[in-house]
Amino acid sequence: NARRLRDHLQAVEDKSTTHTILIPMSKGAADTLEMLKLYPETAKQLDAIVSLVGCVCGSPLKNLAPNWLKWAERAIALPSCERFCGDAVVSLDPKTRSDFLQHFEMPQGPKVYSLAAVVGEEGISKGMMASFHALSRLGGLNDGQMLLGDQILPGATFLGALKCDHIATAMPFNRNRGFMARFITRRFLNHNAFAREIMLEAIVRQVLEDM
């Protein structure tokens, strides 16, 4: 993923008349940090990085997941994905991310921001209720997938916490009219509606104002 991000940035044709703002969501934040370490030249191509519910410090859910789910992640690849034998989940382990951050320094250049999410039981989707309660037992505010404190990039300006669950921030299942999406939304993601366009516009306005 780090290499793919690097390749995408290199494909941006005209940097002279545009601002490049990278908004990685969830695991994308960890992938972005990996890119900056492996390909430090990419920092010069970015004006700002804004993590959205970023998996910066990992998620305790990795260690709380049942064995059958860990097996499924290792053995069953999604139709459009390669099989990496569980490496994606290992990369979200709190120890993996902690070890990485101990030897990582955010490069100079791009402005760095973090936008988190926190939600109460009344706003969590059914499909994340078990993980929400598991994280709540650890004593921290969370969005059903991540603890609040684990969503902040090193040295970032904290933009605040959205009142929605982790998936609602950027994955609009509620707007997909396909049968499977409607089934998933109705049964598992019943709090998926969120004003994403307004959120993204606010992010861009804040970054440009700072520039």
Output the helix-strand order. Answer: HEHEHHHHEHEHH
Number of helices: 9
Structural class: alpha/beta
Record field, number of beta strands: 4
Strand order of the largest sheet: 1-2-3-4
Q: Write down the Rg.
A: 17 Å
Which range best describes the helical content: under 10%, 10-25%, 25-40%, 40-55%, 55-70% or over 70%? 25-40%
Show unreliable segments: none
How far the N terminus sits from the C terminus, by CA atoms, comes to 28 Å
Q: Give the overall pLDDT as a whole number.
A: 88
User: What is the makeup of the main sheet?
Assistant: 4 strands, parallel
Tertiary shape = globular
**Which percent range describes the beta-strand content?**
5-15%
List the helices and strands and how they pair.
Blueprint: H1 2-10, E1 21-22, H2 27-38, E2 48-52, H3 61-64, H4 67-75, H5 87-90, H6 94-102, E3 111-117, H7 129-136, E4 157-162, H8 179-187, H9 196-210
Helix pairs in contact: 1-2
Brief characterization of the structure:
By secondary structure, the protein is α/β, with parallel strands linked by helices. The chain has helices at about 1-10, 25-40, 60-65, 65-75, 85-90, 95-100, 130-135, 180-185, 195-210, and strands at about 20, 50, 110-115, 155-160.
